[in-house]
């Protein structure tokens, strides 16, 4: 190892990247002799990104503030690429660290490659092998795998996906997913000081006997008819199960908010609330009976909390949760969603089977492993 610390720029832009990279930033910063860490956020998300930074006390060194309302993929991509390039020209890091599969990740990896700066990709190797699902993330992550120098795969399956694409084995390591590191930090904080769930009547968190279905959804491939049928399913379920609370923190994307508020507003047992900061959301996951979602991160967190997850997608890049028995795909079809939730709410045997706590995504030490790997690969 050289005498100068490695100049590392950690670049991210959205809520899930922030959740999965903040613990790594803290872990890298524990070794100032090895790493000079600089945090650059693109600001692809604004409010939902800032909510996470606060939890982990991470203050960005650079904020490119690129978000625009209802941004198109092409406009977002070109703004992010240009902004990250300006940042890299000024900072000139030795290594760029990115996480996952958003447009920020793809453009940051591409901008670094153009400047011949090494790229480390956290959560590498996830694949559905369907380029339209999730859209555009499947292609973003394939591109990043072509551009990256270090691939930190969360699971053996993810590593095998990379090898199948011809990525050199010596550049791939299995680390576990840093989301479990983040979740463990969050669970400790939630236990020490139970957070307030803004917008939700207090008695809903207090009365733990009442079943609670937690819902999140934001995938682009579900926009339009998919969102309509998801909302139709929730409306049917809320009418069928009047004693169950349906709690939905609604993503800020206007393509999500319009159908959700139009179709689900004004129902007594459907609670539409704003996106929650990470700690209240984790507390709500703990309180929930089951989770209905199309989120990637939630599929990884819920199994270790013993929460059954019905995934409103046709494909998943996270087959480990399905194999573990905690996750089932129900797609965005109204009937399948209604049947899936109804079964879980009424069939105790099935519920018990799906709610055993299992954790295929890591042991909370992914960041530690990544720090060691980066220390030895200077
Ligand atoms: C993005 C990622 C997706 C990731 C998701 C996590 C891309 C193409 N999509 O999707 O992979 O799973 O984040 O949530 O990278 N908005 C706000 N404030 C915010 C965030 C979003 O107002 O804090 C609104 C804006 O109108 C914005 C729109 O949502 O234009 C869409 O944001 P964008 O980041 O393009 O897409 P997401 O659907 O959030
Ligand atoms: N999450 C949160 N507040 C919410 C909804 C989700 O903090 O209101 C967290 C959740 O615990 C998970 C992450 O956000 O860690 C998932 O983000 P999202 O679903 O937006 O993106 P994806 O994981 O699908 O890319």
Please summarize what this structure is.
The protein is α/β, with parallel strands linked by helices. Helix content is 47%, strand content 15%.
Give your account of this protein's structure.
The chain has 378 residues and is of the alpha/beta class. It is 47% helix and 15% strand. The chain is built from 16 helices and 13 strands. The protein has helices at 15-29, 47-56, 73-91, 103-114, 137-147, 156-164, 178-192, 202-206, 225-240, 254-264, 278-287, 296-301, 319-324, 334-346, 348-354, 366-376, and strands at 6-12, 35-41, 62-63, 95-99, 118-122, 150-153, 172-174, 212-216, 245-249, 270-273, 290-293, 309-311, 327-329. The strands form two sheets. It has a seven-stranded parallel beta sheet with strand order 3-2-1-4-5-6-7, sandwiched between helices. The protein has a six-stranded parallel beta sheet with strand order 10-9-8-11-12-13, with helices on both faces. Helix 3 packs across helix 4. The radius of gyration is 20 Å and the shape is globular. The protein starts with 5 loop residues before the first strand and ends with a helix. The mean pLDDT is 96. Bound molecules: uridine-diphosphate-N-acetylglucosamine and uridine-5'-diphosphate. Uridine-diphosphate-N-acetylglucosamine is lined by residues 14-16, 44-49, 67-71, 73, 76, 102-103, 136-137, 218, 252-254.
């Amino acid at each position: 190892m050289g005498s100068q610390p490695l100049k590392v720029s950690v670049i991210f832009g959205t809520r899930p990247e922030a959740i999965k990279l903040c613990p790594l930033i803290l872990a890298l910063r524990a070794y100032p002799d090895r790493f000079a860490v600089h945090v650059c956020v693109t600001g692809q998300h604004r409010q939902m990104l800032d909510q996470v930074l606060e939890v982990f006390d991470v203050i960005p060194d650079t904020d490119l503030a690129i978000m625009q309302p209802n941004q198109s993929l092409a406009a977002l991509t070109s703004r992010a690429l240009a902004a990250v390039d300006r940042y890299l020209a000024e900072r000139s890091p030795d290594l760029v660290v990115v996480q996952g599969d958003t447009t920020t990740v793809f453009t940051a990896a591409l901008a670094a490659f153009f400047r011949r700066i090494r790229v480390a990709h956290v959560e590498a190797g996830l694949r559905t092998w369907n380029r339209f699902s999730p859209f555009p993330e499947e292609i973003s992550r394939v591109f990043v795998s072509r551009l990256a120098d270090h691939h930190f795969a969360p699971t053996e399956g993810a590593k095998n996906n990379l090898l199948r694409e011809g990525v050199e084995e010596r550049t791939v390591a299995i680390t576990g997913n840093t989301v479990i590191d983040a979740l463990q930090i969050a669970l400790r904080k939630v236990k020490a000081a139970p957070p307030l769930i803004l917008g939700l009547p207090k008695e809903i968190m207090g009365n733990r006997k009442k079943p609670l279905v937690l819902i999140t959804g934001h995938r682009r491939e579900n926009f339009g008819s998919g969102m309509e049928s998801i909302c139709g399913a929730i409306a049917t379920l809320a009418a069928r199960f009047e004693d169950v609370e349906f709690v939905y923190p609604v993503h800020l994307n206007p393509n999500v908010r319009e159908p959700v508020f139009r179709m689900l507003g004004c129902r007594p047992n459907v609670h539409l609330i704003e996106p929650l900061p990470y700690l209240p959301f984790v507390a709500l996951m703990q309180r929930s009976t089951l989770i209905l979602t199309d989120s990637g991160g939630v599929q990884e967190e819920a199994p270790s909390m013993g929460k059954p997850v019905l995934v409103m997608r046709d494909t998943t890049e996270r087959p480990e949760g399905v194999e573990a028995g905690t996750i089932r795909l129900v797609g965005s079809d109204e009937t399948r969603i209604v049947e899936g939730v109804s079964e879980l709410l009424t069939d105790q045997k099935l519920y018990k089977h799906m709610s055993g706590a299992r954790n295929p995504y890591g042991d909370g030490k992914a960041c530690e492993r990544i720090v060691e790997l980066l220390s030895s690969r200077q």
